[in-house]
Amino acid sequence: MQQVAQGNLDILTILFDRHHKHVYNFLYKMSRDKMLSEDLTQEVFLKLIRHRTTYKNGSFVSWLFTIARNSLKTHFSRQHKHHADIDEVHTHLAENANNAHEEYSHLQNALNQLSPDERELIILNRFQEIRYEELAVIVGSTPGAVKTKVCRVLKKLKTIYLESI
């Protein structure tokens, strides 16, 4: 990413090939909307190009998923025609997930029963394989707090999952 930040946009193809599926999967798991996820994935990489000079040698994955998370938040803020904070966005996402409850597997059903914040942590950590340190940067916390929260959410998810089968 440092080369892209310095103007070598040919390298961007490598970053896109490595990460676009992960960004799309995150956005899809949060929104449950294929078209929206595709559009937002493109928007994330456009923002990456536009704001490449703001990258400062930190964790690229944290930076990328922060852009993805903020893009999703912005989309729902604009759609609702007011400034929504992340809790309002998560509430909207949870409502969409509940409407599609019967279409998902037992694991997806269990994930849908988590709060949006809990689901986001699990999706980023377990499905997107983002380390605690990077996840802490994304959600604005400490690695220790994130690790504790993920552990608690996994226990909750296990209980919900076992009750549903």
Enumerate how many helices there are, as a single number: 9
> Largest sheet, if any?
none
Helix content: over 70%
Termini separation comes to 44 Å
Low-confidence stretches: 81-85, 99-103
The structural domain count equals 1
The whole-angstrom Rg is: 16 Å
The arrangement of helices and strands along the chain is HHHHHHHHH
Mean pLDDT: 82
State the shape.
Answer: globular
Q: What is the β-strand count?
A: 0
- The helix-and-strand class reads mainly alpha
Give the DSSP E fraction (strand runs of 2 or more residues): under 5%
Write up this protein.
The protein has 165 residues and is mostly helical. The protein has one domain. Helix content is 76%, strand content 0%. It is built from 9 helices and no strands. Helix 2 packs antiparallel against helix 3, helix 3 crosses helix 4 and helix 4 runs parallel beside helix 8. The longest helix is centred in the last third of the chain and has 22 residues. It starts with a helix and ends with a helix. About 6% of the residues have low confidence.
Characteristic key phrases:
mainly alpha; 0% strand; 165 residues
Task: Summarize, please.
It contains nine helices and no strands.
Compile the SSE list and pairings.
Blueprint: H1 2-5, H2 12-31, H3 34-50, H4 60-79, H5 86-99, H6 106-113, H7 116-127, H8 132-139, H9 143-164
Helix pairs in contact: 2-3, 2-4, 3-4, 4-8, 6-9, 7-9, 8-9
